Amino acid sequence: MKNYRDGTRKALNSNTGNTIKGFVGELTEELSVHLEKRGIKNSDAHKIASDVVDTLRQSMGGCQLYFPKLNQKDNTGRNAEIFKEYTRGAFVNELAVKYNVSLQAIYNAIKRERERQNAGGAANDDSADL
């Protein structure tokens, strides 16, 4: 859940394929809030954030971006849970929202858990990038 300056809270679902407009709005809001916390007044912060996002759109438009979470932990248990839910019919996009990871991270978790189970649980687990 994300706290916004007006006190509302909402889940950020960009990782599940929301519209670009939604992502651009979220990115602009994140930058604006961060700038305000650094002492820049609201109107200036929003203008700077909008300019930065527009510059990124012009220079990187059309590219797929991935922002790794950088949590370097063993996700074997989480991967097993994801795999169990997936095999019971959960949709990948729902799992991505539930576990707050990208769609690709869910696919990787399913793949790694399937490989681990096929190898009798002794496979080398390199799931730290999820």
H/E element order? EEHHHHH
- Could you tell me the strand content as a percent range? under 5%
What topology, given as strand order, has the largest sheet?
Answer: 1-2
Quaternary organization: single chain
Query: How many runs of DSSP E, i.e. beta strands?
Result: 2
Overall helicity: 55-70%
Radius of gyration: 18 Å
Q: Termini separation (Å)?
A: 19 Å
Helical stretch tally: 5
Structural domain count: 2
Derived from helix and strand composition plus strand pairing, the structural class reads mainly alpha
Main attributes?
5 helices; two-stranded antiparallel sheet; elongated; 2 domains; single chain; mainly alpha; 130 residues
Give an account of the 3D structure.
- The protein is mainly alpha-helical and 130 residues long.
- Helix content is 56%, strand content 3%.
- The protein has a two-stranded antiparallel ribbon with strand order 1-2.
- A hairpin with a 5-residue loop joins strand 1 and strand 2 (9-10).
- The two termini are 19 Å apart.
- It comes from Salmonella enterica subsp. diarizonae serovar Rough:r:z.
- This is Mor transcription activator domain-containing protein.
- Residues 24-117 form the Mor transcription activator domain.
- InterPro entries: c-mor_Regulatory_Protein, Homeodomain-like_sf, Mor_transcription_activator.
